[in-house]
Amino acid sequence: MKTDIQIAQETEARHIRDIAAEAGIDEKYVEQYGNVKAKIDYNILTDLKDAPEGKVVLVTAISPTPAGEGKTTTTVGLADAMRRIGKRTMVALREPSLGPVFGIKGGAAGGGYAQVIPMEDINLHFTGDMHAIGAANNLLAAMLDNHIQQGNSLKIDPRRITWKRCVDMNDRQLRFITNGLGGRVNGTPREDGFDITVASEVMAILCLASDIDDLKDRLSRIIVGYTYDEEPVTAGQLNAHGAMAALLRDTLKPNLVQTLEHTPALIHGGPFANIAHGCNSVMATKMARKLADYVVTEAGFGADLGAEKFLDIKCRMAGIQPSAVVIVATVRALKHHGGVAKADLQEENLEALEEGLPNLLQHVENITQVYGLPAVVAINRFPTDTEAELALVEEKCRALGVNVALSEVWGKGSEGGVALAEEVVRLCEQPADFHCAYELDLTIEEKIKAIAKRIYRAKHVIIQPPAMKELKKLESLGYGNLPICMAKTQYSFSDDATLLGAPQGWTLQVREIRVSAGAGFIVALTGNIMTMPGLPKKPAAEKIDVDSRGVISGLF
Predict the structure, then answer these.
(1) Does the annotation count 272 as an active-site position?
(2) Strand, helix or coil for residue 403
(3) Which of 37, 55, 105, 335 is labelled catalytic?
(4) pLDDT attached to residue 504
(5) pLDDT score, position 215
(6) Is residue 537 annotated as a catalytic residue, yes or no?
(7) pTM
(8) Which residues are paired to 515 by β-bridges?
(9) For 276-314, b where at least 16 C-beta lie within 10 A, e where not — what string?
(10) Which of the residues 87, 94, 253, 457 is marked catalytic?
(11) Residue 76: its H or E element
């Protein structure tokens, strides 16, 4: 059986100028990075301001498991299938982070015959966006520490610095560090730490900015710490935002590539959905809507994370309303939620499947009942799935008024996604009563509880004393009306990764509250979630190699 990277490398890509032309992008806006990838100048949006906007299809999934769900694969295959049935479609995805690529999860370019290419570039350095975001983030950190070194006219308390440096790599050694050692000339000694780049507020700002002026304004509002008098200090006060924006000028331009079947794809921005808001950029989504009748996009991890943040944060800020939602599941993953070990998932087990189905059904109920959106369940089919198992999933979903479509895009490409594409097109014509899970005028505590109880189905919420103290301070500073970005394990509806399925009667623990004033949301860290992941016992990096011809292997 061919690997994902072998399939991608055997596909002959079309020149990116041809892909751009087919998408309706004038050549003057195309900035080539070789022959198969390009950046698209955001000034195209000025020329397209009067063009109609296409419908947005959001792809999300059940809570992820080691068995795999195939959300990105389904997203890419669905876009190809919609083009196959004659719909003018673009796909809009996030950029992969090097952390998962070299860690345990692998890349994020799809799989099988439903991938975006060049797969190796996309999963590695691509067009340099991650590096630019890291540079902008760390420039601010350097200017902050330099301000203190050069006299500290803003009277910043080194003990109350909240801004961290970042690197796009899973590196647990950097979670907690001490810097500024070695004497007076080397800075002020203090405790510090690194976040992974995709969790940086700069990443969130880039993904939520509507244009270069909005980007600069958001960067200026970043809070880096507090004075001795407990007043917030911003990047604007350090005069750092202009230089940061200069570093991000080209990064703000969405990246154009293609699928294996040459569907135009915009890949831009890459925040994690468990510790950030988990959606591709507003800029890319807006651009795709102006260029296509249908835009297929995804949000990270399960619907309780990426989709919740897409709907409660991104849609609010960008004025977007999805026309349909696809919830991806596999029979294997549902049996894992029902207690089956990974080694036994290929065996038919209707009892375990029924035990695991509440996870899928709760995600479905959230999308259709909490958010009021039409949805379809896409079963990413495996050869070991039995007819009885597939029938059980269909029966339970139909009881909630939601259809099930089998997706076989991994093995068949667009041909395997026609049924799903036809159902999505049908749903896009259905009326929707979209509303968010909470109103912005609630208190921070009330908004956290709304998400915890309405989406996660927690029974109780405990905001620990240090978090409650910070919460009250942020409200007193005028940040109480911001939406909430929950940082939570992706493996469970709860804050405990071991609680699979749809746990009931549990208590959400909020241990820390942060403000991302530039991004425009409050971050609530729950359980033991980390903003700097670590590598697993056997990292994927051990299997990645390059031969004497420069051909990369081992990526997945």
Answers:
(1) no
(2) strand
(3) 105
(4) 94
(5) 98
(6) no
(7) 0.95
(8) 522
(9) bbbbbbbbbbbbbbbbbbbbbbbbbbbbbbbbbbbbbbb
(10) 94
(11) helix 71-84
